[in-house]
Amino acid sequence: MAAPVLQEPLLKAVGEVQNYVESSTDYLRLQMFRTLMRLLTSIAKSVVVGVLVFLALLFLSVAAAFALGSWLQDDLMAFLYVGVFYLLAGGVAFLMRKRIERGILRSFSDLYYD
Asked: Quick check: 1 pLDDT over 70?
């Protein structure tokens, strides 16, 4: 006789737990989607800006090499100087790679763990 009395509250509690689990799952899916979309849009913006900056540097480098070539009266040496400048800039970036990596990780972790 005690079983039917306990069965109704127990079924009600099980139903509430199921509702809680379903709503928590939906919330987590929505949160994951939000975080993933923020991350992907940030990466897409970075790629677009990076490509545009690369193209600008390419044209500016060619213009600088021709300007330097007319000043030096030797286009080959001017292009060589511009190339050496980029090798030095790449070396500095290589030496500072840990600091650059830390900054990138910090910025993306702020997006992910918001």
From this structure: no
Tell me how far apart the alpha carbons of residues 53 and 114 are, in angstroms, rounded to a whole number: 29
- Distance (Å, rounded) from C-alpha 97 to C-alpha 92? 9
| pLDDT one-digit tens code per residue, 8-34 | 777 777 788 788 888 888 889 988 898
72-108 pLDDT, tens digit per residue, is: 999 999 999 999 999 999 999 999 989 988 888 887 7
CA–CA distance, 21 with 14 (Å, rounded to integer): 11
**Number of Cβ atoms within 10 Å of the Cβ of 82:** 19
**Domain residue limits, the chain:** 2-112
- Cα gap 93→10, rounded to integer Å: 64
Contact between 78 and 61 under an 8 Å Cβ cutoff? The reply is no
CA distance 112 to 114: 6
State pTM to two decimals: 0.62
